[in-house]
Design goal:
- The complex is a heterodimer of chains A (about 260) and B (about 600).
- Chain A is mainly α.
- Chain A has one domain.
- Chain A has 11 helices and 2 strands.
- Chain A has a two-stranded antiparallel ribbon.
- In chain A, helix 2 packs across helix 7 and helix 2 runs parallel beside helix 11.
- The longest helix of chain A has 29 residues.
- With about 600 residues, chain B is an alpha/beta fold.
- Chain B is built from 25 helices and 20 strands.
- In chain B, the strands form 4 sheets. In chain B, strands 6-7-8-3-9-10 form a 6-stranded mixed sheet, sandwiched between helices.
- In chain B, a hairpin with a 2-residue loop joins strand 14 and strand 15.
- In chain B, helix 17 packs across helix 18.
- The longest helix of chain B has 16 residues.
- The chains are: A mainly alpha (about 260), B alpha/beta (about 600).
- Chains A and B meet through helix 8 and helix 10 of A and helix 3, helix 4, helix 5, helix 6 and helix 16 of B.
């Protein structure tokens, strides 16, 4: 099973200039940030689904399907505990089940799912080198941009190692599902420590290998790949500006909140 | 277009490397890792560096590109010169165009999402212009045999290909010296063969190479062998001289080449570079052996029946454990990871009580997946597994652990406790055993693995070999009836390998069934009594060790080589699994 999310396809999204791709991630986050209403979140969700279809990113969404489901479900349920507004529809101890809390919770769940979806789309269509280049063009120093993009590359490696460690501890009779929520978190110590130690070792090896390859030799390394700006980049950039502005307008006018639903 | 490695090298001057009286002590280390080491490498020379873990091999390699003392902090004295130029005051990145370094962990040295870009990475860092990078990429890939892979994702390559890619990215900078620090430790036999074929090619083309390696057979092509012991040079000379000093090598934790050792035990003064040379030397000294047992030496492998008639009986190597009734039963087992091809295809297998089984095969052949099914980490798509007659699908992994224990390849995947004692006690505590019973079991397990004096030590400060034995103790404490060890000797020096395998053999003799997953031919030959060969998820051989090493076609197609001593014995019409066995056979017929 591949541990990285990048899916090599020749779609126009894949071919977009790295700066536009990094900018698109920013705009997606920006747009989702300003609105709470599930209906207002729908258009950008549809845009993401369209891009997923266009870029053939479904395998990554399928891989993370449980994470999406858990995000939406647990967030909706959690807000029914903490968001205690509106007329109660059903009496359940601890929970405040009202139309308002349902909509608010669902909105928060969709919001988180869309933030995750934006990241998945970005990583499905953007190479690490493009990420670094895009950040550099946005005036982020090379060392910082390289470190950020490399950390994305390392996450799947750490997940892979964590899965092996969980297996190793289960085979020593360890039950991760004992006790209440806090106890369950505490029970992950036998996983966290080996992952952390492994991460330190890996980071050390990588740092050595990087320096041995000349990392740090020049403050502004050259780039092997050329990224020419095309008409598609300009159109995409204009579309993203429009999208970001529209979502800010939804916030500004109050249409993006859950107020109208009250 | 220039394509050979010579054209990639910027080698010049007489001495490619001069190490002058280098002493280095890590800031947290008690004794110096290197002590007054002086060494000169001529341009175009290949030096093999050997020694036990902790002898200073990697420290010496890291000195050559300033990782020591620039990156690894400590007290450094002496001087290093590359092509006559001192490295003093240079940063690691400044040395990159002069000294290329390839590390053992291939995944930590690949940073890009495409092969061509990976080769370009170092050139980008030193600020090379795009046209020059373009000119250098294809020759570098050509030199390592990866031309045509330019657009592949490095993560999709095999281990051997990844390591060759790492070498290509180093070659592209045209350094005058390339240092390879145990480049094949994590590779399967096919990957090892690929990388060593490349090293030999680069050596023939005149690159200055320094290769750190545990397996002496692989370094016969070197011009010189340097053996380190506790930070000092214990031997330095041509392979024929150094490899003849078997006593010294063993003392230094280096496995002497099997052929040379055999000749020494037979009283023949020669250091053969190949099985052919060893055959000729023995044939000259013991002509009766040729006439009584051989097919003439050049007639290819003996017929199985002829060879069987003159070879020792199986089982032999792992002692005299009695093999009992079937313990593990696997019927028609198939499995695929989500969205992937079949990784196990209709596998049938039985493992008996007290058996010693080796599972071999290339990476991706399904060995580990099979083992994970036995211990219950994976659920079969089709098929059935029984443990001591019980259906495994009805047992939880924790329950299975009391019957079958699994030791992962990397011991660091389970170690977390503050002391060795707590680490071992973790398993029994999970099963809710009484404290005095836990104590008794921990004592027993630590005694078995030889760590009884390390009870209060921090597991993270133990050596790799000790951590591997700790991992064994931490599952042994559950008193399983079978132990599966995934690559138990990877990354260990010869001394640690022997210690680990002696432990495994003792456990087998005490009645525990052993299954080892390994790529190492001599481990199979010396310890196992049965071999299962996997290929593309299917079991393609299941039988005795001697029979396995007679399957030339199977071995070749699986990139698995018999130990050289076994190959040599076959030239004489017998089949010996160990040096001692072969020498005994020759002397018995002389």
């Amino acid at each position: 099973m591949p541990i990285y999310l990048y899916i090599d396809r020749g779609t126009f999204v894949h071919r977009l200039h790295p700066t536009v791709k990094v900018f698109s991630l920013f705009v997606m986050f920006w747009s989702v940030y300003w609105v709470d209403n599930p209906i207002a979140l729908l258009p950008i969700g549809l845009v993401m689904l369209w891009i997923a279809q266009l870029t053939d990113s479904w395998p990554n969404f399928y891989r993370l399907r449980w994470l999406f489901a858990i995000l939406v479900f647990t967030t909706t349920i959690a807000w029914m505990v903490f968001y205690r507004r509106g007329a109660v529809l059903v009496n359940i101890p601890v929970f405040h089940v009202s139309r308002l809390s349902l909509v608010f919770g669902l909105g928060r769940g969709i919001k988180l799912a869309e933030l995750l979806a934006a990241s998945v789309l970005f990583l499905s269509t953007t190479k690490i080198e493009e990420f670094t280049y895009g950040l550099q063009r946005m005036r982020v120093p090379y060392r910082v941009s390289f470190a950020i993009s490399l950390s994305f590359r390392l996450v799947p490696l750490f997940i892979d190692s964590a899965v092996t460690i969980v297996d190793a501890q289960r085979l020593r009779g360890y039950d991760f599902n004992q006790g209440g929520p806090l106890e369950r978190v505490r029970r992950y110590v036998p996983v966290v420590i080996p992952v952390f130690m492994g991460a330190l070792r890996k980071a050390n090896n990588m740092a050595m290998a990087l320096e041995a390859r000349g990392f740090g030799f020049s403050h502004e390394p050259t780039t092997f790949i050329e990224y020419p700006v095309t008409a598609a980049d300009i159109i995409a950039f204009a579309f993203l500006i429009g999208l970001g502005a529209s979502y800010f307008m939804l916030y500004w006018t109050g249409l993006g909140g859950i107020g109208p639903l009250k | 277009m220039k394509t050979d490695a010579q054209s990639l090298s910027g080698a010049s001057g007489t001495h490619a490397v001069s190490v002058e009286g280098v002493t280095f002590t890590y800031h947290d280390g008690g004794r110096p890792a290197l002590r007054s080491v002086s060494l000169v490498q001529n341009a175009g020379e290949m030096i093999g560096v050997m020694g036990a873990s902790g002898a200073g091999k990697s420290t010496l390699a890291k000195c050559l590109n300033r990782i020591v003392p620039e990156f690894e902090d400590g007290d450094f004295h002496g001087a290093i010169l590359i092509a006559g130029e001192s490295l003093e005051h240079l940063r690691v990145c400044d040395v990159a165009p002069k000294v290329g370094m390839v590390f053992q962990d291939f995944e930590s040295q690949l940073f890009s999402t495409n092969v061509a870009h990976e080769v370009a990475f170092a050139m980008e860092q030193v600020g090379m212009d795009r046209a020059e990078m373009d000119r250098r990429i294809l020759p570098a890939l050509e030199a390592v045999g990866l031309r045509g892979f330019e657009h592949r994702d490095p993560m999709s390559l095999s281990g051997g290909e990844k390591q060759r890619l790492a070498i290509a990215s180093v070659l592209a900078l045209r350094p005058s010296v390339i240092v390879l620090d145990e480049p094949t430790t994590d590779l399967d036999p096919e990957g090892r063969a690929e990388v060593f074929a490349l090293i030999r090619k680069l050596r023939e083309q005149g690159l200055s190479l320094i290769v750190i390696e545990h397996e002496s057979e692989e370094l016969r092509a070197a011009d010189r062998i340097v053996v380190l012991r506790e930070g000092e040079i214990a031997a330095d000379g041509p392979p024929s001289e150094v490899f003849a000093r078997t006593g010294l090598l063993t003392e230094c934790g280096v496995r002497p080449p099997g052929l040379g050792h055999a000749l020494e035990l037979l009283g023949i003064e020669a250091q053969p570079k190949s099985v052919d040379q060893a055959y000729e030397a023995i044939a000259r000294a013991y002509p009766r052996v040729v006439t009584t047992g051989s097919d003439g030496g050049h007639g290819g492998p003996p017929h199985l029946l002829n060879a069987r008639s003159s070879m020792p009986e199986e089982p032999k190597a792992a002692g005299d454990t009695k093999i009992g009734p079937s313990f593990i039963g696997i019927e028609n087992l198939s499995y695929s990871y989500v969205g992937g091809p079949r990784v196990l295809d209709s596998v049938d297998l039985k493992v008996e009580v007290g058996e010693f089984l080796a599972i071999v095969g290339q990476n991706g052949s399904g060995k580990t997946t099979l083992a994970k099914h036995i211990v219950g980490l994976l659920v079969p798509a089709t098929g059935r597994i029984t443990i001591d007659g019980k259906d495994r699908s009805r047992m939880r992994p924790a329950e299975t652990a009391r019957e079958v224990a699994y030791v992962f390849q990397n011991p660091d995947h389970q170690i977390f406790a503050a002391t060795v004692d707590d680490e071992v006690a973790f398993g029994p505590r999970n099963f809710g055993l009484a404290e005095d019973e836990i104590r008794r079991r921990c004592d027993e397990a630590l005694e078995a693995v030889g760590l009884q004096n390390e009870r209060q030590s921090d597991p993270f400060l133990l050596s790799k070999g000790e951590r591997q034995r700790l991992a064994v103790a931490s599952v042994l404490v559950l008193r399983p009836r079978m132990l599966i060890l995934d690559e138990p000797t990877t990354g260990l020096d010869h001394r640690e390998q022997l210690r680990m395998m002696a432990l495994v053999r003792d456990l087998n003799r005490s009645g525990i069934a052993i299954v080892i997953i390994t790529h190492t031919p001599w481990l199979v030959a010396e310890y196992a009594r049965r071999v299962v060969l996997m290929r593309k998820g299917a079991k393609i051989f299941d039988g005795g060790v001697r029979e396995f090493f007679m399957q030339d076609d199977l071995l070749r197609s699986s990139s698995f080589r018999a130990p050289e001593i076994t190959e040599l014995s076959r030239r004489f019409g017998t089949l010996a699994l160990t040096t001692g066995e072969f020498v005994e056979w020759v002397k018995g017929r002389a």
